[in-house]
Structure formats: structure tokens, C-alpha cells
Amino acid sequence: MTDFTPALLDVVRADPLCAETPVAQLTAVVTPAASVYVRSNFALPRLDASHCIAVRGAVDAPCTVSLSDLAAMTQRHVTVTMECAGNGRLGMDPLPPGEPWRFGAVSTTRWSGVPLRLLLDRAGVQAGAVEVVALGADAGLRDDADGEVRFVRSLPLADALHPDTIVATHMDGAPLTADHGAPVRLIVPGWYGMASVKWLAALEVATTPFTGYFQRQRYVYDVDGVIEPVRRARVKSMIATPHDGATCERRVLVQGWAWSGAGAIARVELSVNEAPVWIDAALGTPASAYAWTPFEAELVLPATETVHIRSRATDAAGHTQPERIVWNRHGYGNNAVRAIAVTVRDAMRDAAS
Fold first, then answer.
1. Which domains are present in the chain?
2. 132-163 confidence digits (pLDDT tens)
3. What angle do CA 319, 132, 209 make, to 5 degrees?
């Protein structure tokens, strides 16, 4: 059983639940809580108010942190655009295995909780530590692994100690729901969603790189056998209005979002019908350093019935969306330029007359 409202999510898989944010909700600066995308690998673990997080490994004083401990600690709020690493997999050809995500596995949300570094400071990180391994309470069987597999991911120590990496207990001002990791989860700004481990049960400080299933077999880029773990979100943009399939006038205001895990968005450009000319869009102010950047531009569309509009983002680190999809065996990180198709109302009238 899950605690979602079907009308407010586009379900990709019902059990365990994987669901996208509907197109209509992707126009909001902060995604309505009931429509924040959901990614689950296994059945929901059932945790209660007695749940604690174990902090262990290469630390001076292993400890457990209760939910009441977290509530008494310094709270931090971060607004984050989070994207599933498989978002856009359905656009790949041939289609890789995994959930057939379209383009709605992305949301922007305000999270509240305690900086992860406060838990690590309480335990005392030892010299020689290189990573923090986050263990979720969810587990299950996989067809390419022996026995039960637990959801576990690691973070470089520097990312774990960043003040905006938090152990979250609230989303949009309310306690987390079960589907979003209640009672406690990680939030790692700038990384794809797999780093924000839900149903957080333990933190292990490690002196060697973690090599578990979800670090080396899944959530990796596998291109011709070359393996690289999926980490920070690639630069990407999305046209929110008009939406794909909409009918509009020839003169139309195009609005959307751009984001990147490598830094601020420096530029967004628009193009029509594969034209080589790109038009700069105006950039707005993001809700936070980790939230998508709004963009807009007024276009005059050609007098043809169907028109394709493309958006292309560049971040401050110099990364630009590729023109073509970079295929990989598991279908992660598709950030290629995407076109939406609209019907031009003026052209329809001309054709009818």
C-alpha cells in the first residue's frame, strides 16, 4: 500500500510505486507536495516514531540518533530541484531496461531537516575517512543479484559535510510521507535522486570507496563496458508552457526551467523546427542555488500547422545540453535537447479557409 493520490501523479509503475509529476504541475516554481515524483526500488518499509539512525564505521564514538534528537538540533531548509537519473529513459532507442520514465521524474521541493555534518560531528569522523555510506531501510530481490539487496549509496566526504546536505524529516512544511521516505531521508542538492537515500537507517563512515550493488551495478553509466557511477545531475532544460501537444497562436510566450548539478544556469536558447539559429531566452531568479532557473522568450512561430520548439541550456561550468541522446546500457542521465510539438491556431484557420 502507498499513500498517494492517483489523480495528482502519473503512475509509471504501481508496485513498488514509481510516478511522475503531471505536466500541469510542472509549471509551478515549487511542485505541489502531492505531485512530487516518487521513485521506489522496493516495497515500503514500515517505520515508526521509535526509528533511530545508527552512525558507525570510522568514527570516534558510534552513536544512534533518534527522531526526537533530530527535532532538538539546528534545523536547515533547502529548496532543491531533484531529478531521477532515469528521467527521459523512454526517449532512448533502443529502450534500456528499467522504468519507462517520460520527462516528469523531476520536481522542485522545499525540504527541512538537520545538516548531515552535525550527526557526523557528534560521532567524530576519523582521519582517513573518504566516504559516508547511507543505508536505507528498504530491501528486496533483484534478478541480477544473489539474495536480498538493500538500497545503499555512498557520498564523498566533502559532499556529506556540505552544510546543505541534510537529514530531512519534512517536505513542504509537513512531515515526510511514506512514499517520500518517512520518517527520515537524505537530501543531497545537485545530485540525481538516488543519492537522497529514503528511509535512512544508518550512516557508515568509510576509509575505502563503497562498491555495493547500487554503486557499481545500478545507477552507473555503462557505455561499452566502461562503468562510471551516476552522481551530479547533468545540465538540462524543459519547456513548461506551452506543453507538448498544445494549440497556440503564432505569437507565443515560451516558458520553462533549466537546472544543473554543476552550478548556476548561464544561458538558455530556443530554436524552432531544427533551425540552426538559436534565440536567447531571458533568465529569471531561481528560488535557491539548487532550484531550477526560470526562462522565457516570446516567439513568432511559422505559419505551418505543426511546429517544434527546442530548448538548450548551458551552465556556469560550461556544460551544454547535447543535440543527441548519449545512450547507455541502463538509460541514465538523458539530458539531450528535447523538442515539444505544438499546433499553430492561425495555420489551422488558414488551412480551413
1. 6-229 (3.90.420.10), 236-352 (2.60.40.650)
2. 999 999 999 998 898 999 999 999 999 999 99
3. 75
